[in-house]
Amino acid sequence: MMKSFLTFSLLVFTFILKAQNAGDDWKDIYRGSSTRINDLVHTKLEVRFDYNKSYLYGKAWITLKPHFYSTDSLYLDAKGMDINKVALVQGAALTPLKYSYDSVGLNIRLGKKYDATEKYTVYIDYTSKPNELKVKGSDAIKDAKGLYFINPKGEEKDKPTQIWTQGETEANSVWFPTIDKPNQRCTDEIYMTVPEKYVTLSNGLLTSQKKNADGTRTDYWKMDLPHAPYLFFMGVGDYAIIKDAYKGKEVSYYVEKPYAAVARKIFGLTPEMIAFYARITGVDYPWAKYSQITGRDYVSGAMENTTATLHTDALQQDARELVDGNKFEEYVAHELFHQWFGDLVTTESWSNLTVNESFANYSEVLWNQYKYGKDAGDDKNFEDMQGYLGSHSEAKDLVRFHYADKEDMFDAVSYNKGGRILHMLRTFLGDSAFFKALNLYLTTNKFKTGEAHQLRLAFEEVSGQDLNWFFNQWYFGSGNPKVNISYLYDDAAGKASVIVNQLQQGDSAFRLPIAIDVYNGKERQRHNVWITHRTDTFSFSYRKRPDLINVDAEKTTLWEKKDDKTLDNFIHQYTYAGNYLDRKEAVDFCAKNQDDPKALALLKTAMKDKYFALRSYTIGELDLKKPAVKSDVEPLLADIARNDSKPTVRAAAIGLLGQYAKPEYKPLFEKAVHDSSYSIAGEALGALAQLDGPTALADAKAFAKEPMKGKLAGVISQLLIEGGGGEEDFDVIAGNFSKLPVSDAKFEALQPFADYLGTLTNTEKVKKGVDMIVDLREAVPSQYKAQVTPFINNMILKGIVKKKTAAQNNPQAQQQIDYINEKINGKKGF
Ligand SMILES: [Zn+2]
């Protein structure tokens, strides 16, 4: 599963987040693997949907067998259902079975003892009522309803009618009775009866379709290979299906019809990704087809249902957004790699979740590196490392047998830290051993479960090395090294010393294999050493003092460090060391020393770096408040603004050039506001506004006639609001606000939007705008609600009330105030 709220939570909520105290009782609960009494063998379902009631009417034939010990009873997870009938299937006959049901699970008496060689099939007739189910929300998944009816009665005019399911962690047992644990797996077949106008998607192959007399159609989906219950999926809706292929297997993209033309730009790299992942794992794509579908109001980022990945509808970017690149390409990579790590070999328990998520997370680095070069892979690796280091999860082991809620496992430790640990293992063992071990792990455990121990055994088997120390430290231990690196040079003795101090809490030391490169000019000597103590000193003799000693030369170690290098060291590092992080570290150091001409010269070099993201990063670090910097970089900025090959780099330069407010750039901005890239056009419009407000406002009004997204939409709203935005601009301003996904950008836009609503007199518009703010309040993940709800109510909504109270010529003000107050108090509007 892909979490979509990580940056959101890190950036936006730091100011309102308090540590949540959910009690400590969970520390006493051991979260082991689920005991296997009965094993699933096969699941056959017949389902149809009641769009008026949001019910599913289901019939299930579930074949099982005792795992090892004989048993005369069966427990099935079945959440919030009406159970109409439970029977034993014996040929064509159904023999009713005794059972009890408590709205969470079914306890069935089988009527006789079965031993482990005997299969049996139970039949259950049931009604699934997902909206009447009370469940606890979570981080990755806002709800756990399992089955979601989106706009089922078609009452919301701008929203399609869809049905989709979300199983992970244990929510699929809302829509079919099963043993809803990751250490179960079975084959399946589903007969889905739907209105004829819709298409369906499920696991495996669509084997047949039959039209019914009542305007419905029954689609028969068949999955011949066993997979875990949480990976079962159904999707229903009015989608365009765009078909690709991989080695004769169907690769398809289900998108809302307006996105049919851009579907290949969003998903089209999928066959190349499949080929890439098949090649590096040595395991060909294991399943019969691979489809991806988007879901409205999806409760997570994406989910790797076997052969049928579900993505958030935010993936559906328009052609102009895609000019800046596909923001969701990493989602496509992540979910695809789960088809091997997660679906083919499945985590034994949620405690071991990292054997699914660390690989999916790391697959994004692997893909970037393969497709866009080593810098792009290293960039992604560093970004995800920061995601972990900023999450304050030092107390959590990677494999954890104690947690408050299984949803808590979907965090920056299981994902980001796990991915970085794989990267270190790869650096340590070398590419060929690393990938051969992945192959061994997959082939040994395919169609079974995996734990961190199985990973260790595969790496040990291939490399011939003991890795208990590594796994004990990183998988069954917590935290990360925090180091201070300092240098001593003794020219008389011709000796350089590197001192590495581990400063993390406690007195234990991390054991770290590490490369130290010693540079003379471009000549480099590598020393592979082990850091093993709280303080380690490594000495090197020299004839001429080295230009640079580069510790952790591969820049793959997961640690926080303070590195005592000089400006000259960093300049040498940028020029000769070569890795993305070697160069970025130099940029960071120089950005803090922009008054130094040598540092500024390096920043100017980095503005032309071969890797585009480092170019735009460097531009973002320039401090134009310093007159010397401002005048020195201007010609280069102007050149980049006109000529850089990457839209995002041009946009960054244009945004900065706007701060010069020079008429000579006006033609550049006036042209760039019409660029197809939203980021270029948006930055240019903002820059133009600083030179010529009326022209920029006129442009904004003209652009606002068409639907806009991205940076341009934000700048248009801002200009319209600042330009005294009247009632006539409401559709554009409100439309831009409502189109923003729940994100830091949306929270940044919140206050200006509320200020604007405060100035409006039209009651219908005020109500619509307030509803959008209330929708945001309700859409926030549940664990943030305790902080966000009072913020939106007391700061944002009451702020609008204050403006209405002070308004002189708004005869409707009182009515609007009443409406807002009702929304604050959570009552339905009138
Ligand atoms: Zn995932």
Description of the molecule:
The protein is built from 26 helices and 29 strands. Helix content is 39%, strand content 24%. A hairpin with a 4-residue loop joins strand 13 (205-211) and strand 14 (216-227). The site of zinc ion (ZN) has 6 residues, from helix 5 and helix 6. Zinc ion is lined by residues 1-2, 334, 338, 357, 360.
Topology:
Layout (H helix, E strand, L loop, with lengths): L5 H7 L25 E13 L4 E12 L4 E7 L3 E10 L2 E4 L2 E3 L3 E10 L5 E9 L18 E4 L11 E4 L20 E10 L3 E4 L2 E7 L4 E12 L6 E4 L1 E8 L2 E8 L6 H5 L2 H12 L7 E7 L6 E2 L4 E5 L6 H5 L5 H10 L6 E3 L6 H19 L1 H16 L23 H17 L1 H15 L2 E3 L1 H12 L4 H7 L7 E9 L4 E8 L9 E9 L2 E9 L3 E7 L6 E4 L8 E4 L3 H11 L2 H12 L5 H10 L5 H10 L5 H17 L3 H11 L8 H7 L5 H14 L1 H11 L6 H13 L7 H10 L4 H16 L3 H17 L2 H25 L6 H12 L6
Parallel strand pairs: 1-11, 17-18, 18-20, 21-22, 23-29
Antiparallel strand pairs: 1-2, 2-8, 3-7, 4-5, 4-8, 6-7, 9-10, 10-15, 11-14, 12-15, 13-14, 16-17, 19-20, 23-24, 24-27, 25-26, 25-28
Helix pairs in contact: 3-5, 5-6, 6-7, 6-8, 7-8, 8-9, 9-10, 12-13, 13-14, 15-17, 16-17, 17-19, 18-19, 19-20, 19-21, 20-21, 21-22, 22-24, 23-24, 23-25, 24-25, 24-26, 25-26
The structure holds zinc ion.
Notable characteristics:
single chain, 830 residues, 8-stranded mixed beta sheet, 5-stranded mixed beta sheet, 29 strands, 24% strand, binds zinc ion
Give the overall shape. globular
Number of helices: 26
Helix content, binned percent: 25-40%
Give the termini distance in whole angstroms: 39 Å
Bound molecules: zinc ion
Largest sheet: 8 strands, mixed
Q: List low-confidence stretches.
A: 5-21, 137-142
How much of the sequence lies in strands comes to: 15-25%
CA gyration radius, whole angstroms: 29 Å
What is the tally of beta strands?
29
